[in-house]
Amino acid sequence: MSSILTHRLFWPVVMLLVLFAINLVAFPGFFVIEVKDGHLFGSLVDIVRNGAPTLIIAVGMTLVIATRGIDLSVGAICAISGAVACSILLGSPNPGSVGTVVTAVVVAVVISLVLGVWNGFLVAVFGVQPIIATLILMTAGRGVAMLITEGQILTVNSPPFKVIGSGFLFGIPVAVLIAALIFTAAAVLTRRTALGMLIESVGINPEASRQAGVRSRGLLFTVYTFSALCAAIAGLVLTSNQTAADANNTGLFIELDAILAVVIGGTSLAGGRYSLAGTLVGALVIQTLVTTVYTVGIPPIATMVFKAAVVTAVCLLQSPTTNAVIASWRKPIAARFRKATV
Amino acid sequence: MAIATAPVVSPTRRAIDRTRGVFTSPKYGPVLVTLLLLVAIYAIGGARYRGFLSGPVILNLFVDNAYLIVLAVGMTFVILTGGIDLSVGAVVALSTMIAASLLQSGTSPGVVIPVILALTSVLGLLVGLMIHVFAIQPFIATLAAMFLARGLCYVISSNSISITDPFFVAFAQTRIPLGGGMSITPSVIIALLVVIVGLVVLQFTRFGRTVYAIGGSEQSGMLMGLPVARTKVLVYVISGFCSGLAGVLFTFYTLSGYSLTAIGTELDAIAAVVIGGTLLTGGYGFVIGSVLGVLVLGTIQTIITFEGTLSSWWTRIFIGVLLLVFIVLQKVLTARRR
């Protein structure tokens, strides 16, 4: 029992279940998943589908935070990748062809990888604090996206491109499949190999891990590039879903949601320990919260107040101070128990 | 190195060394570079555009950025302790909303302004307690405060509320003549007062020294018996108070309350503090530097306005580039010291 209570995913999962319960009371058909035209439909499917971009970014963010870093530029990278893809599609004579869409996606991803390498360069080579290194791109990035779209909202009409954000494959939303693919890839690559442990060691003590032979510089490059890759893909999903690139609003505040998802999932911003499963729960909590606000009938504009409440609650429950208090409650019981057995 | 060659250096050589020492010190270097940069931008602007170096243009810089100066002063306190406050932009918006809605319902300005300052200070206090007592990272705690403040704005109203209260309108329209056809607003005087108070508190009080000490090393401060807990909480109260005051000044400036106002202002404030030479790890920096940082940002905006053909998004790109330059500069300066 106590091992469940102290498990780092305990409070986030409780929060998710509470939100589910609230939804079920407000809307009895909440857990119903129907198949219409061979596609899955239902509130849960909506939550997973709308939460996909946040989850994709949060996966990359988890690895960055595990190295004691942070990546504030993901929202701007979302906007840039969407802007690049849409401007290529609009510039081509045949935006509906699969070839053009593939080119647009590849170019958008490659440009984002370059931006990720840039972040990695500032952090790993120049030793700039991650929060400030990525702040540069966060500030300048939206300006660059505006430059690409020339200040316009680029609306595209390309059926193959639309599939990324709102299509279905085997009845499952494509966005969800992409998120699942990235999540699984990250989990397998870091947890089935030593990569995850090396990332954590860099997060605990970069200097000590370097002296122990861990190539921390390369690892930092890798995580920031991966984070940018995730951001680019999320940007494509968002842009495709809206069928438009809006340099000002695509992925606005998504970096904050992603960081929240990671923190709610029990990964410490101090680095050195991460949980991808926690990030998954965190992203679901955030998206369920948004959905709950809608189903319960609270004006959607109040969502942010609830987000603040949930974040505060989860953080306070997970804080070392609270744990110490809980531990001090439990101690007398444990002591009594020990006395009884002696 | 310097000791070995000391006996043979000439007085001029020593003066050069001392000047270089000032420029390469992590304490004064970045501030001086910011000052030089500001002068350089002015010179470029003056050379390119007619009327750029005139008094009204320079004074308008203060008029337009009075609220940002106040924000930057509060942010300087927080960043000096090694923290960060992401909530300031949202708190500015919340203050404008509270002001507009209370005034609309007929509350007297003499009540409204103290209420705003008290509320934002209490919000800062709560954030500070979250950070200190519950050991939550400043980034996350102030992020929660940002969501709360922005959310409360929407709860008050999602529409823009205009302000017709005679006191606010009079305050907004008052110009204090400085002679030669130049004038400033009372907001500028309030902002400058805040700067002076911030400067005195940081440089000449025990509290100010403790702020620097925490930024240098929290643990050492604790071992020295400094009131680390109280100081750490207080800097967030100060930042909250400054955000509230900035919100009031912003309300004078725009004469309306709007939920979506001041989005991204926290980034401007942080950028101003960083460009002003305050290290984000804490311990080094001056209030004056942050004011210079605000002026640099304002001047860039003015240049873009004067240029006319440049689109507004170039501002963001320029700020990003400037941040980069300053961070690399700070890195070089602090690296040489080690």
Brief summary of the model shown:
Chain A is mainly alpha-helical.
Summarize the helix and strand pattern of chain A as letters.
HHEEHHHHEHEEHHHHEHHHH
Give the number of DSSP strands of chain B.
4
> Kindly state the mean pLDDT of chain B as a whole number?
85
Order of SSEs of chain B, N→C?
HHHHHHHEHEEHHHHEHHH
CATH architecture of chain A: Orthogonal Bundle
Q: Would you give the CATH topology of chain A?
A: ABC transporter involved in vitamin B12 uptake, BtuC
Largest sheet of chain B: 2 strands, antiparallel
Radius of gyration of chain B over all CA atoms, rounded: 21 Å
Describe the structure.
The complex is a heterodimer of chains A (342) and B (338). In chain A, the strands form 3 sheets. In chain A, strands 1-2 form a two-stranded antiparallel ribbon. A two-stranded antiparallel ribbon of chain A has the order 3-6. In chain A, 50% of the residues are buried. Chain A has 15 helices and 6 strands. Chain A has one domain: ABC transporter involved in vitamin B12 uptake, BtuC. In chain A, 73% of the residues lie in helices and 4% in strands. By secondary structure, chain A is mostly helical. The longest helix of chain A has 28 residues, at 98-125. In chain A, α12 packs across α13 (276-296). Chain B is mainly α. Chain B has one domain (36-42, 53-337): Orthogonal Bundle (ABC transporter involved in vitamin B12 uptake, BtuC). Helices cover 75% and strands 3% of the residues of chain B. Chain B has 15 helices and 4 strands. Chain B has helices at 2-5, 11-24, 29-48, 55-80, 88-104, 109-133, 138-156, 166-173, 186-204, 206-216, 218-223, 228-254, 265-275, 287-307, 313-337; strands spanning 161-162, 176-179, 182-184, 256-257. In chain B, strands 1-4 form a two-stranded antiparallel ribbon. The model of chain B has no long low-confidence stretch (mean pLDDT 85). The A-B interface holds A 70, 122, 126-129, 131-133, 135-144, 146-147, 151, 247, 256, 259-260, 263, 269-270, 299, 301-309, 311-312, 315-316, 319-322 and B 84, 130, 133-137, 139-141, 143-148, 150-152, 154-155, 158, 259, 267, 270-271, 274, 280-281, 311, 313-317, 319-321, 323-324, 327-328, 331.
